[in-house]
Design brief:
The protein folds into 4 domains: 4-119, no CATH class; 127-205, GMP Synthetase, Chain A, domain 3; 229-269, no CATH class; 280-347, no CATH class. 33% of the residues lie in helices and 17% in strands. The protein contains 12 helices and 12 strands. The chain is extended, with a radius of gyration of 34 Å.
């Protein structure tokens, strides 16, 4: 998604809205929301929901009560209640969708903990806010130098100023507990503002900073994903993925969240498959599962001692053999079922390419004919030099 001013300009270069993360139409921001109820009118006698969702830096969002009954729309800059002072943010959602989001995130509208919206931000509020935002990068670099000098095992990933520039929040990640009492004293003396330290996880850090994943798209956590569910290596095993930490880990160093996206579909498909640790007992010998293909619905078994010869079976055939083994019966061999499977494959229609596109030399043949024609013309010209003169005349 992008706003109208983020279109491409000359030579395909992006213009950019140059708002540095404060897009007015909320079209190119992190964790954007499409208000699909904006064109629908409320039924008669129903009052509009007096809560709005306000977005701050790097996708941080909170719900606020519109106690002053201001006419707010998406993209409006507002001054909200904070402790101490006030904060400045952008309205990201209004109307009935706010009620749905609050119910989803288990926020009680009747509780007294929800803060209020003071007013629409004035030009003075916006100027102070923009000046504070411009200081954040320099302060982040300086704060990292101070943390390194104090030998603290922590990483300061982001700095966020409050809208009135009265407080600065430092987001950091650390493996163990950090004693940053001396650090706060030096920060307050160096930056001359109120300091708040907030520890976040590695996934929250990746969501705040953003980036490009191995799929070539923006990270899910910085675009639409808000709940971070636990991901285990069993999700990779169920999907027949190689347990390579470099491929399974994301930019946060944890397992990729996308491993859970198709896990339910794989688990549903695996219900018809027998367990891979169950052996098939036949008169010829005991067979062990070597490989399964969930998409084709096939299993490969090999006899103990004959590991190079694999036999292809369907889940129904494997379950049939297992059911007989439970009753104390055993089948003759796996070849009986494999022959049936081969006959079924032979009965399927095979379509052959009649055009000849599978030939690697199909583009070379006309070129060779053209070269032969050119060589013949050159030989004729050399044998009869007056022919070219007569043509020119």
């Amino acid at each position: 998604m992008a706003c109208s001013s983020c279109s491409t300009g000359k030579d395909g270069q992006p213009k950019g809205c140059k708002n540095n993360g404060t897009c007015g139409t909320d079209g190119c921001n992190k964790l954007t929301v499409f208000d699909w109820l904006s064109n629908m009118s409320l039924p008669g006698g129903v009052e509009p929901f007096d809560f709005v969702e306000v977005r701050f830096k790097n996708g941080r969002k909170h719900f606020f009560k519109n106690s002053e009954n201001l006419s707010l729309s998406i993209g409006d800059v507002v001054a909200t209640e904070a402790s101490p002072g006030h904060d400045v943010g952008i309205v990201s959602l209004t109307g009935e969708l706010v009620r749905i989001q609050m119910k989803k995130k288990k926020e009680d509208p009747n509780s007294g903990e929800i803060l209020k919206i003071y007013r629409k931000a004035s030009q003075k509020d916006i100027d102070v806010w923009q000046e504070a935002r411009e200081r954040e990068d320099k302060i982040k670099q300086r704060s990292r130098q101070i943390a390194i000098r104090l030998n603290l095992s922590m990483k300061i990933s982001d700095v966020e100023f409050q809208g009135d520039a009265s407080k600065a929040t430092f987001y950091y990640t650390a493996d163990d507990r950090v004693d940053f009492r001396q650090l706060i004293k030096e920060f307050a003396r160096e930056f001359n503002t109120r300091i708040e330290m907030r520890q976040i996880g590695l996934r929250q850090e990746a969501a705040r900073l953003g980036g490009i994943g191995s799929c070539g798209r923006e990270l899910c956590c910085s675009t639409w994903l808000t709940d971070f569910r636990s991901v285990s290596t069993s999700a990779a095993r169920y999907q027949q993925l190689s347990l390579n930490p470099q491929k399974l880990a994301g930019q946060c160093g944890k397992l990729k969240c996308c491993l859970n996206y198709e896990l339910d579909t794989y688990l549903e498909a695996l219900k018809s498959f027998p367990k891979t640790d169950v052996k098939l007992k036949t008169k010829k010998g005991t067979a062990v599962c070597q490989k399964i293909d969930i998409f084709k619905g096939l299993l490969w078994y090999a006899y103990e001692g004959e590991w190079m010869n694999w036999h292809k079976l369907t889940p129904e055939q494997a379950n049939k053999i297992i059911a007989k083994n439970k009753k104390g019966e055993s089948v003759g061999s796996l070849e009986e079922f494999e022959v049936e499977l081969q006959l079924e494959d032979d009965n399927k229609k095979e379509f052959h390419n009649a055009v000849g596109e599978d030939s690697l030399t199909r583009f070379d043949k006309p070129k060779r004919q053209q070269k032969k024609r050119r060589n013949k013309k050159r030989k004729k010209r050399k044998g009869n030099p007056n022919a070219s003169k007569s043509k020119n005349a």
